[in-house]
Amino acid sequence: MSHLVTNTSELRRILALATEGIYVQPGPLQLLLPAGTYLPLDGMPIHVTAGVKVTMTSTGAGATLDAQNRSRALKVSNGSQLRLNRVHIAHGVAPSDE
Fold first, then answer.
1. Is the distance from CB of 35 to CB of 61 less than 8 angstroms?
2. Model-level pTM?
3. Would you say the C-alpha torsion 70, 66, 48, 3 has a positive or negative sign?
4. Contact at 8 Å (CB) between 57 and 87?
5. How far is CA 68 from CA 13, 54, 77, in A?
6. Cα separation of 28 and 11, whole Å?
7. What is the pLDDT of residues 47-83, one digit of tens each?
8. 80 contacts: CB under 8 Å, gap ≥ 6
9. What's the CA angle centered on 16, arms 15 and 20, to 5 degrees?
10. By the 8 A CB rule, do 31 and 2 touch?
């Protein structure tokens, strides 16, 4: 089952629910971002944690996760996995304390 994601808060909500075990399914959590979707991250990276496996897929020219030069774009930890298909990562920066 794929979950349609059209904005940043929706993406964060779905990932938080997956981390809490709400979306339990065989295989990775499938997220569909429509072509041309632009998701500004507002200084907070997207977190994939707690062993969650996620596949984000877009179509056509793809979708964009934009860290806006304010943070990392993504943080994947604790045995989690993230696969991106036609999803572009833009303007991520590493924190100065790492």
1. yes
2. 0.90
3. positive
4. yes
5. 20, 23, 22
6. 15
7. 999 899 999 999 999 999 999 999 999 999 989 999 9
8. 48, 49, 50, 51, 52, 53, 54
9. 115
10. yes
